[in-house]
Amino acid sequence: MTLSTARENLKSARRIVIKVGTSTLAHSDTGKLNLYRIEHLIREIADLHNAGKEIIFVSSGAIAAGMNKLGIKIKPQTIPENQALAAVGQGVLMHIYEKFFAEYGQTIGQILLTKENAVDEHARENSRNSFQAILAMGAIPVVNENDAVGVDEIRIGDNDNLSAIVAAMIDAEVLIILSDIDGLYDGNPKLDKSARLIDEVAEINSDIERIAGGAGTKLGIGGMFTKIQAAKLATANGVTMLIVNGSTNGNLRRALNGELVGTIFPRRESS
After folding, report:
1. Full domain range(s) for residue 224
2. Do 118 and 124 form a contact (C-beta atoms < 8 A)?
3. Which pLDDT band, with edges at 50, 70 and 90, does 218 fall under?
């Protein structure tokens, strides 16, 4: 599949998973939720839904929202403390999402997943059926990992890979991961001004994994490397994936119109 074909096919995609990271949802300086960015993102998603797209919204940010609500400045290191923050933050996020989506005439439904939902055949089928029912009712599933009860043994670990698992589970055509940069670069653009954006990654090899770099922001846990892991999973399951800057209004629509936005990872053709 060539770049032009991969981009062109985005125009006809109907079932789309959109993943937003903490770096997009929160102000980097204060850690507080960026309501301006959230509202504009939700308005864009709502309009895509009005245009006939089936949207599944995978959201990070629960722990950051919990920290903000409780006035905690430094992220705790223990599992119980982070579970507590996630429990508080999930309620905060859903309240905000419910408010903004409702303003644009949309209904949402929350789905919390663990690794069991991905690896156990029975649990996976039940999860898939739940997604299908919500979509059939015309609502938008809002997905997160169940961090409030998750421990290492049952955690997926990051929402980039979670979004790829969800995309494969529900036979999505496209996965769009919203990041705090324009896409995958051939170097670190925050350190190297000569780093160039890679428009297309036809094959994820060791070179791509090496230039993907490490950790992201202090609030997020998924750097570019987890996005490359997600791309490997998504494309192997017939899903085209894009990394797009979530801080620019209209990027979702531009990407789905086939414009040259972000980095595209074309789905692998079945043999």
Report:
1. 3-265
2. yes
3. very low
Assess if residue 270 is contained within a domain: no
In a domain, 127, yes or no: yes
User: CA 2 to CA 107: how far, in whole Å?
Assistant: 37
Domain count, the chain: 1
> What are the pLDDT digits (tens) for 94-133?
999 999 999 999 999 999 988 777 778 898 999 999 999 9
Whether 254 maps to a domain, the answer reads: yes
Nearest to 203 by CA among 16, 1, 7, 19: 1
> Could you give the residue ranges of the DSSP H alpha helices within 111-218?
115-119, 121-136, 159-169, 206-211
CA-CA distances (angstroms) from residue 142 to 93, 159, 261?
10, 12, 24
Check: CB of residue 60 under 8 Å from CB of residue 220. Answer: yes
In CATH, what number is assigned to the domain containing residue 175? 3.40.1160.10
Instruction: Read off the tokens for 95.
Output: 């309240």
Give the DSSP H/E element, type plus range, for residue 179: strand 174-179
Structural domain includes residue 187 = yes
Q: Which residue, chain included where needed, has tokens 């529900």?
A: 170
